[in-house]
Specification:
heterodimer; A: mainly beta; 5-stranded antiparallel beta sheet; B: mainly beta; 4-stranded antiparallel beta sheet; 0% helix
Chain lengths: 109, 116
């Protein structure tokens, strides 16, 4: 089983729709979880950290399910500018962060 | 907002040549990283650096790679004898708490290395 696994997509979603994707992780000792966004040929940028209680930032909601070892990202009222690859990042219990391969999201007008 | 800066933005080199990629982390950060991303593939961890020494490195970071913090601001990645498969985007990142949950990573814009 891969350490961090994501559906590569692409998810093709009409503008204004709600989209959600999950990321599973294998290390039950992981304590830190993040969603990064990466535009084509650009650096990853932090979208949000994921807290145990779940957290929301505007149209974005992140949740953690420790029992099933996955995190999720929900985007409401999607915009064309949300088109990007969304990277799930999990710490492996040490300094090293384990990166998922990313989920590609395409928002269509 | 403070930024991580990387130079050059694009480096073209011939196979077998040495390259040095430069990064200026955010000034109050203590943990520094190099990642790479081959076109179309996932972000791969290379090395982490703290307190003037390597704290962790991946299998990719073999003897051809080295890192240095020559002064209080720069953090460099050297590839001694480049291979074609070293062609990738190299990202520098820094954080103030080891990226273990207190503080995530802040990335530079990357250096695109093309080995011909």
């Amino acid at each position: 089983r891969k350490e961090v696994e994501q559906d590569p997509g692409p998810f093709n979603v009409p503008e204004g729709a709600t989209v959600a994707f999950n990321c599973t992780y294998s290390n039950s000792a992981s304590q830190s979880f993040f969603w990064y966004r990466q535009d084509c040929r650009k650096e990853p940028k932090l979208l949000m950290s994921v807290y145990s209680s779940g957290n929301e930032d505007g149209r974005f909601t992140a949740q953690l399910n420790r029992a099933s070892q996955y995190i999720s990202l929900l985007i409401r009222d999607s915009k064309l500018s949300d088109s990007a690859t969304y990277l799930c990042v999990v710490n492996g219990g040490n300094y090293q962060l384990i990166w998922g391969a990313g989920t590609k999201l395409i928002i269509k007008p | 907002e403070p930024e991580v800066t990387q130079t050059p933005s694009h480096q073209v080199t011939q196979m077998g040549q040495e390259v040095i990629l430069r990064c200026v982390p955010i000034s109050n950060h203590l943990y520094f990283y190099w990642y790479r991303q081959i076109l179309g593939q996932k972000v791969e961890f290379l090395v982490s650096f703290y307190n003037n020494e390597i704290s962790e490195k991946s299998e990719i970071f073999d003897d051809q790679f080295s890192v240095e913090r020559p002064d209080g601001s720069n953090f460099t990645l050297k590839i001694r004898s480049t291979k074609l498969e070293d062609s990738a985007m190299y990202f520098c990142a820094s954080s103030d708490a080891g990226g273990t949950g207190v503080s995530p990573l802040h990335f530079g814009n990357g250096t695109r290395l093309t080995v011909t």
